[in-house]
Protein backbone atom coordinates (compact mmCIF):
# COMPACT_ATOMS: atom_id res chain seq x y z
CA UNK A 1 0.00 0.00 0.00
CA UNK A 2 1.14 3.54 -0.79
CA UNK A 3 -0.42 6.75 0.51
CA UNK A 4 -1.66 8.23 -2.78
CA UNK A 5 -1.91 11.75 -1.33
CA UNK A 6 1.64 11.64 0.01
CA UNK A 7 4.61 13.37 -1.64
CA UNK A 8 8.01 11.86 -0.91
CA UNK A 9 9.83 13.82 1.76
CA UNK A 10 12.97 15.66 0.71
CA UNK A 11 13.66 17.02 4.20
CA UNK A 12 12.81 15.76 7.69
CA UNK A 13 13.75 16.43 11.30
CA UNK A 14 15.35 13.69 13.40
CA UNK A 15 14.76 14.09 17.14
CA UNK A 16 15.73 12.19 20.27
CA UNK A 17 15.04 12.45 24.01
CA UNK A 18 18.24 13.49 25.77
CA UNK A 19 19.72 14.13 29.22
CA UNK A 20 17.48 11.54 30.83
CA UNK A 21 19.51 10.82 33.93
CA UNK A 22 19.65 12.33 37.40
CA UNK A 23 22.76 13.08 39.44
CA UNK A 24 25.06 10.07 39.11
CA UNK A 25 22.32 7.94 37.53
CA UNK A 26 22.42 7.70 33.71
CA UNK A 27 19.70 6.15 31.55
CA UNK A 28 20.61 4.56 28.24
CA UNK A 29 23.76 2.98 26.85
CA UNK A 30 25.12 5.77 24.65
CA UNK A 31 26.69 9.05 25.79
CA UNK A 32 24.57 12.10 24.96
CA UNK A 33 27.32 13.55 22.77
CA UNK A 34 27.33 10.47 20.53
CA UNK A 35 23.56 10.70 20.00
CA UNK A 36 23.70 14.48 19.55
CA UNK A 37 26.03 14.08 16.57
CA UNK A 38 23.29 12.14 14.74
CA UNK A 39 20.18 14.26 15.29
CA UNK A 40 18.77 17.65 14.30
CA UNK A 41 16.50 18.33 17.32
CA UNK A 42 17.00 17.39 20.98
CA UNK A 43 14.27 16.96 23.58
CA UNK A 44 16.03 17.65 26.88
CA UNK A 45 14.65 16.35 30.18
CA UNK A 46 13.80 19.32 32.39
CA UNK A 47 13.88 17.91 35.92
CA UNK A 48 10.55 16.25 36.70
CA UNK A 49 10.81 12.79 35.11
CA UNK A 50 14.59 12.99 34.68
CA UNK A 51 17.33 15.59 34.40
CA UNK A 52 18.79 18.07 36.86
CA UNK A 53 20.41 21.52 36.58
CA UNK A 54 23.85 20.09 35.80
CA UNK A 55 22.64 17.65 33.16
CA UNK A 56 20.45 20.32 31.57
CA UNK A 57 23.40 22.72 31.36
CA UNK A 58 25.65 20.03 29.87
CA UNK A 59 23.19 18.82 27.23
CA UNK A 60 22.14 22.34 26.21
CA UNK A 61 25.81 23.13 25.58
CA UNK A 62 26.04 20.01 23.42
CA UNK A 63 22.99 21.09 21.41
CA UNK A 64 24.57 24.49 20.83
CA UNK A 65 27.90 22.96 19.81
CA UNK A 66 26.31 20.56 17.30
CA UNK A 67 23.81 23.05 15.86
CA UNK A 68 20.86 20.99 17.06
CA UNK A 69 17.40 22.48 17.68
CA UNK A 70 16.79 22.95 21.41
CA UNK A 71 13.67 21.41 22.89
CA UNK A 72 12.20 21.20 26.39
CA UNK A 73 10.97 17.74 27.36
CA UNK A 74 8.65 18.26 30.35
CA UNK A 75 7.05 15.29 32.07
CA UNK A 76 4.95 14.26 35.02
CA UNK A 77 6.58 14.89 38.40
CA UNK A 78 7.59 11.23 38.64
CA UNK A 79 11.30 10.49 38.93
CA UNK A 80 10.69 6.99 40.30
CA UNK A 81 8.44 6.02 37.40
CA UNK A 82 10.44 7.96 34.78
CA UNK A 83 7.28 9.87 33.82
CA UNK A 84 5.73 6.83 32.20
CA UNK A 85 2.97 6.46 34.79
CA UNK A 86 -0.30 8.37 34.52
CA UNK A 87 -0.89 10.84 37.37
CA UNK A 88 -4.45 11.99 37.94
CA UNK A 89 -4.56 15.76 38.46
CA UNK A 90 -6.08 18.88 36.89
CA UNK A 91 -5.06 20.25 33.48
CA UNK A 92 -4.21 23.56 35.16
CA UNK A 93 -1.74 21.88 37.52
CA UNK A 94 -0.16 19.97 34.64
CA UNK A 95 0.26 23.09 32.53
CA UNK A 96 1.86 24.88 35.49
CA UNK A 97 4.31 21.99 35.82
CA UNK A 98 5.07 22.15 32.09
CA UNK A 99 5.66 25.91 32.07
CA UNK A 100 7.92 25.57 35.12
CA UNK A 101 10.08 22.99 33.32
CA UNK A 102 10.15 24.92 30.04
CA UNK A 103 11.29 28.04 31.86
CA UNK A 104 14.18 26.21 33.48
CA UNK A 105 15.41 24.69 30.21
CA UNK A 106 14.96 27.93 28.28
CA UNK A 107 17.19 29.83 30.72
CA UNK A 108 20.02 27.38 30.16
CA UNK A 109 19.50 27.96 26.44
CA UNK A 110 19.79 31.71 26.94
CA UNK A 111 22.93 31.21 28.96
CA UNK A 112 24.55 29.34 26.08
CA UNK A 113 23.18 31.43 23.23
CA UNK A 114 20.65 28.98 21.80
CA UNK A 115 16.95 29.72 21.54
CA UNK A 116 14.18 27.32 22.50
CA UNK A 117 12.98 25.69 19.26
CA UNK A 118 10.30 23.34 20.54
CA UNK A 119 8.44 21.67 23.39
CA UNK A 120 7.68 17.96 23.53
CA UNK A 121 5.84 16.49 26.53
CA UNK A 122 7.31 13.22 27.79
CA UNK A 123 5.89 9.74 28.12
CA UNK A 124 2.52 9.42 29.83
CA UNK A 125 2.03 13.21 29.76
CA UNK A 126 2.46 13.21 25.96
CA UNK A 127 -0.11 10.44 25.66
CA UNK A 128 -2.55 12.18 28.02
CA UNK A 129 -2.35 15.45 26.07
CA UNK A 130 -2.98 13.44 22.89
CA UNK A 131 -6.47 12.47 24.07
CA UNK A 132 -7.29 15.36 26.43
CA UNK A 133 -8.57 18.36 24.49
CA UNK A 134 -8.88 20.58 27.57
CA UNK A 135 -5.27 19.94 28.54
CA UNK A 136 -4.10 20.52 24.97
CA UNK A 137 -6.02 23.80 24.73
CA UNK A 138 -4.58 25.07 28.02
CA UNK A 139 -1.09 23.97 27.00
CA UNK A 140 -1.17 25.61 23.56
CA UNK A 141 -2.62 28.81 25.06
CA UNK A 142 0.16 28.89 27.67
CA UNK A 143 2.85 28.26 25.06
CA UNK A 144 1.48 31.06 22.92
CA UNK A 145 1.74 33.47 25.83
CA UNK A 146 5.15 32.40 27.15
CA UNK A 147 7.10 31.16 24.11
CA UNK A 148 4.94 31.75 21.07
CA UNK A 149 7.45 30.66 18.46
CA UNK A 150 8.20 27.33 20.15
CA UNK A 151 6.95 24.38 18.09
CA UNK A 152 4.82 21.78 19.86
CA UNK A 153 5.72 18.17 18.97
CA UNK A 154 2.89 15.63 18.92
CA UNK A 155 1.26 12.77 17.03
CA UNK A 156 -0.73 13.65 13.93
CA UNK A 157 -3.87 11.92 15.23
CA UNK A 158 -3.76 13.73 18.59
CA UNK A 159 -5.98 16.40 20.12
CA UNK A 160 -2.78 18.37 20.59
CA UNK A 161 -2.30 18.57 16.84
CA UNK A 162 -5.95 19.49 16.23
CA UNK A 163 -5.80 22.29 18.80
CA UNK A 164 -2.46 23.65 17.58
CA UNK A 165 -3.69 23.83 13.98
CA UNK A 166 -6.96 25.46 15.03
CA UNK A 167 -5.16 28.09 17.10
CA UNK A 168 -2.43 28.66 14.53
CA UNK A 169 0.39 27.52 16.79
CA UNK A 170 3.55 26.04 15.20
CA UNK A 171 3.34 22.23 15.35
CA UNK A 172 5.38 19.27 14.14
CA UNK A 173 3.93 15.78 13.82
CA UNK A 174 6.17 12.90 14.81
CA UNK A 175 6.89 9.50 13.34
CA UNK A 176 8.15 7.01 15.91
CA UNK A 177 11.02 4.92 14.62
CA UNK A 178 11.31 2.61 17.65
CA UNK A 179 7.65 2.25 18.62
CA UNK A 180 4.87 0.15 17.16
CA UNK A 181 1.63 1.59 15.75
CA UNK A 182 -1.97 0.46 16.06
CA UNK A 183 -4.57 0.90 13.33
CA UNK A 184 -5.78 4.23 14.75
CA UNK A 185 -2.37 5.73 13.94
CA UNK A 186 -1.39 5.95 17.60
CA UNK A 187 1.81 4.52 18.99
CA UNK A 188 1.49 1.49 21.23
CA UNK A 189 2.64 2.87 24.59
CA UNK A 190 5.37 0.78 26.25
CA UNK A 191 7.26 1.17 29.52
CA UNK A 192 9.91 -1.30 28.38
CA UNK A 193 11.05 -1.99 24.84
CA UNK A 194 13.26 -4.72 23.42
CA UNK A 195 16.40 -4.17 21.34
CA UNK A 196 15.32 -3.49 17.73
CA UNK A 197 17.30 -4.38 14.64
CA UNK A 198 18.85 -1.11 13.37
CA UNK A 199 18.47 -1.96 9.69
CA UNK A 200 14.75 -2.75 10.15
CA UNK A 201 14.14 0.53 11.98
CA UNK A 202 15.98 2.46 9.26
CA UNK A 203 13.97 0.76 6.53
CA UNK A 204 10.76 1.60 8.38
CA UNK A 205 11.74 5.29 8.46
CA UNK A 206 12.79 5.42 4.81
CA UNK A 207 9.55 3.73 3.73
CA UNK A 208 7.51 6.23 5.76
CA UNK A 209 9.36 9.10 4.06
CA UNK A 210 9.02 7.63 0.56
CA UNK A 211 5.54 6.11 0.69
CA UNK A 212 3.81 7.78 3.65
CA UNK A 213 2.80 4.51 5.31
CA UNK A 214 3.69 2.45 8.37
CA UNK A 215 2.87 -1.18 9.16
CA UNK A 216 0.84 -1.70 12.34
CA UNK A 217 1.13 -4.43 14.95
CA UNK A 218 -1.74 -6.14 13.09
CA UNK A 219 0.25 -6.26 9.86
CA UNK A 220 -1.80 -3.57 8.10
CA UNK A 221 -0.30 -0.56 6.31
CA UNK A 222 -1.82 2.77 7.35
CA UNK A 223 -1.08 6.31 6.08
CA UNK A 224 1.14 8.47 8.27
CA UNK A 225 1.97 12.19 8.05
CA UNK A 226 4.88 13.75 9.90
CA UNK A 227 7.61 16.36 9.88
CA UNK A 228 9.93 14.79 12.46
CA UNK A 229 11.21 11.28 13.16
CA UNK A 230 11.78 10.31 16.79
CA UNK A 231 13.90 7.63 18.38
CA UNK A 232 14.61 7.23 22.10
CA UNK A 233 18.05 7.32 23.72
CA UNK A 234 16.91 4.77 26.33
CA UNK A 235 15.95 2.17 23.70
CA UNK A 236 18.52 -0.65 23.84
CA UNK A 237 20.99 -0.18 21.00
CA UNK A 238 19.97 3.47 20.50
CA UNK A 239 23.33 4.56 19.09
CA UNK A 240 23.44 1.89 16.39
CA UNK A 241 19.78 2.56 15.62
CA UNK A 242 20.38 6.30 15.28
CA UNK A 243 23.36 5.72 12.99
CA UNK A 244 21.29 3.38 10.81
CA UNK A 245 18.38 5.82 10.59
CA UNK A 246 20.64 8.73 9.63
CA UNK A 247 22.51 6.67 7.05
CA UNK A 248 19.28 5.28 5.59
CA UNK A 249 17.72 8.71 5.20
CA UNK A 250 20.89 10.22 3.74
CA UNK A 251 21.34 7.35 1.29
CA UNK A 252 17.73 7.87 0.19
CA UNK A 253 18.48 11.52 -0.62
CA UNK A 254 16.51 12.90 2.33
CA UNK A 255 17.97 15.94 4.09
CA UNK A 256 17.99 15.95 7.91
CA UNK A 257 17.41 19.39 9.44
CA UNK A 258 16.02 20.97 12.64
CA UNK A 259 12.24 21.15 12.89
CA UNK A 260 12.18 24.94 12.49
CA UNK A 261 13.87 24.62 9.10
CA UNK A 262 11.63 21.75 8.03
CA UNK A 263 8.57 23.88 8.87
CA UNK A 264 10.06 26.99 7.23
CA UNK A 265 10.02 29.03 10.44
From TrEMBL:
BP terms from Gene Ontology: carbohydrate metabolic process
InterPro entries, alphabetized: Glyco_hydro/deAcase_b/a-brl, LamB/YcsF/PxpA-like
A Pfam family annotated for this UniProt entry: LamB_YcsF
NCBIfam families registered for this protein in UniProt: PRK05406.1-3
Protein name (database record): UPF0271 protein
Record organism: Cohaesibacter gelatinilyticus
